[in-house]
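ingest -> validate -> predict -> emit
validate: passed (alphabet ok, no gaps, 533 aa)
predict: started
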Amino acid sequence: MKRLFLSTIAATLFLTACGGPAEGDMSASEPDTPKIDVTTQTSTETARKPVSASTNQPNILIIVADDLGWADLGFRGSDIQTPNIDRLAAQGIHLERFYVMPICTPTRSALMTARDPMKLGSAYAGFQPWQNGGVAPQERFMPQDFQSAGYQTAMIGKWHLGHTTEPLVPNSRGFDHFFGHLNTQVDYYNYTVASGYDLQENGTSVQRDGTYATDVHGDETVRYITDIRDPDKPFFAYVPFLAPHSPMQAPEALKAKYPDRKDRPFTQKTYAAMVDSLDHNVGKIMDALDAQGIADNTIVLFFSDNGGLAAFGADNSPYRGGKLETFEGGVRVGGILRWPAQIEAGQASDAVVSVLDLYPSLAAAAGVDMSVEKPIDGQNRWAEMSGKSSEIRDGDLYFASNSPMFNRYHVSVMEARWKLVQIIDHQQTSTDVETYLFDIIEDPTETNNLADAHPDEVARLADKIRVWRAQHPINGVRVALAPHPGWRAPLDYAESVMPSSELQTGQFDSYVKGMRAQILQQRHGDKGKIVYD
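emit:
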């Protein structure tokens, strides 16, 4: 593989790349599978030995939109035409309290590992092309367990979890088949990011002659379902679309469908067209499942990786805030789950489900054993997701964002009743903190700040956030919307990935496990972890 080849870029190119300009307050029976002990270490070779999956095990299809607003679907009253996603919702269950992280990379890392992104060093910001980090190779990813259980696994779309070395890319994280992009902010027509080409199939660059990227993703998913997969084995497919994330680009014919929307000063018409195209391609995928006769036994899960950006035309109403913020509009997204063989159509659930819960929940639904070596933060919420239970989720949920402003953090903790939001802005010689306390049951739209009335609750919850943030690796990813002056972009991101054979194995132990690290850790206290995890 080629080394990094380099060309300069404009520092402003990534202003909105999974951390663009912050938009303010605009506002049938359950499968008989055992419970999973998520805290038990199961690192035996037997647990990871591939087995033959049963043909009656369900297929798994996870479809993720990028920056879709809560209210931007037809069945929620939007003017955007989304008949296919609406049909998916009508045939399944709406998850009305489905929580993700407020930006791209944290949600994706939580989905893949069931572990809190704060521990992974991926909580605050998205990995940019000029950063060489990623989710640590020693973390177990969800498709690895499905792969070990005999499933065939595939990913089509946007990765955004590490792109510089072979251990960080999809084919090393449990996906037999990968077609898509390693980075975010990819141009929809020429597939470049920071002037480097970023479209590949299993490590080799591919050309698609300027076809709109959302159509590419839909067509490639159909190709996988129709031509690539083995019909005698179940599949696990992850389809994270680029849309409707910036750059704001869409076919002119689709923009023409929304004449009442304007693209000045914001890109509302283009945004609507991007969501329209997303829906069209979801429809193509659903039609492929029908044509193959596998729709009834395929679990389809659809959600957005975070709330939308109002500046680009998204609508998160009635919730406060949006992408990059830890108010409900940034972290509460519409989840849709369909499994005709097992889940009654036309339901809605108010049970709290986190993206952290998807790994253990889907594993339970499919009868797949989890072979995690570390305690996970997700819970098996399959009964709640499938409408069989409304049990309250045990434990707190935490959210964070350091995008887009350097040294400015949005953080929050949510209990069953109380939710504390802090906006912490570190100036050169001082720190400003905005504090909001909400009764999230009585006030889900977060209109009534109770911080002054309940100072003891504020102090208690703020201390929870302090302890939680102390888990962050000190060199985990933080906002870096412009590259180091010495960085140069590769000509091709697929060819620039450094192979495992040219890398050291394990961590650089002299830095992370020696006496020096122990001494520094004592001095750092709750500022973060020097030794990973």
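The radius of gyration is 22 Å.
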